[in-house]
Design a protein that fits this description.
The chain is of the alpha+beta class. The protein contains seven helices and 13 strands. The strands form two sheets. Strands 1, 2, 3, 5, 6, 7, 10 and 11 form an eight-stranded mixed sheet that branches. It has a five-stranded mixed sheet with strand order 4-13-12-8-9, with no helix packed on it. The protein binds 2-oxoadipic acid and magnesium ion. This is 2-keto-4-pentenoate hydratase.
């Protein structure tokens, strides 16, 4: 049920999108709107998405967040969330990311699924996801909560497009039949030092479970994942803060690596 008016939803969408575009922190919105419901939170996210599309931006993918225990424990939120990826979030592999355009970015080691068939919840399971997947490809997400000190609750982070800001994909793709997605290892290095390691099963027991959950959450709003969709499954390990001048490489078992630099 929605507890906020249409006007409040629009105002909060503008408030959070401006914080994203001009890179400044705001207080978490449930402090001022404690009555906000989950439906309101998703309405705000979808209004931000609508505003970007109205300005001519293309939505190029979706992301799940808070799907591993490492992330849930790090953020103190024990339920996954989703967000959208806009065209200008995409950074080429090996590219530069402008730190000054962001507030307090962190990087995450993820995988992305690219679909060859539509997935529409409810009732989507891992088997459906594996059948509908064209290929899996490495991805690194840069997250940047618009909230002060990167602290939020689930409703506030959903409204803030689940902290989405940049992503990089690359390395080598492979169909799921050629991968052991549960044991698939990732090694994250910052400035040449190993800072995080993990395996695919950290994400909801199996990476495909994250895509299934997204299809089912979208189904609650009558939305689906079209054939061709690019979906990031959520961080396998805890996220790592980055500073200007830092470079990073994430190695993926059987799938190559992704690197980039904060300038
Ligand atoms: C929310 C987004 C989390 C992930 O991969 O878990 C996320 C946050 O931690 O700011 O993208
Ligand atoms: Mg993420």
């Amino acid at each position: 049920m929605g507890n906020l008016s249409k006007q409040q939803i629009e105002e909060l969408a503008i408030h959070l999108e401006n914080a994203e575009l001009d890179a400044y922190e705001v207080t978490k919105i449930t402090d001022d709107f404690p009555q906000m419901s989950y439906e309101d939170a998703f309405d705000i996210q979808w209004e931000i998405r609508r505003r970007k599309e109205a300005r001519g931006h293309k939505i190029v993918g979706m992301k799940m967040g808070l799907t591993s225990w490492a992330k849930m424990a790090q953020m103190g939120v024990e339920h996954p969330c989703y967000g959208f990826l806009a065209d200008y979030f995409s950074v080429p592999d090996g590219g530069d990311i402008k730190h000054a355009e962001l507030i307090h970015p962190k990087i995450e080691a993820e995988l992305a699924f690219v679909l060859k068939e539509e997935l529409k919840g409810p009732g989507v399971h891992i088997g459906d996801v594996l059948r509908a997947t064209d290929f899996v490809v490495p991805a690194v997400e840069v997250i940047d909560s618009r909230y002060k000190d990167f602290k939020f609750d689930l409703k506030s982070v959903i409204a803030d497009n689940s902290s989405s800001t940049r992503f990089i994909t690359g390395g080598r793709m492979a169909p799921p039949s050629e991968l052991d997605l549960k044991t698939l290892g990732v090694v994250m290095e910052i400035n040449g030092e190993v800072v995080q390691t993990g395996a695919g099963a950290a994400v909801l027991g199996h990476p495909a479970a994250s895509v299934a959950m997204l299809a089912n959450m979208l189904g609650e709003r009558g939305e689906s994942l079209a054939a061709g969709s690019f979906i990031m499954i959520g961080a396998i390990t805890a996220a790592m803060p980055v500073n200007p001048g830092d470079n990073f490489t994430v190695h993926y078992q059987d799938l190559g690596s992704i690197s980039g630099r904060f300038v």
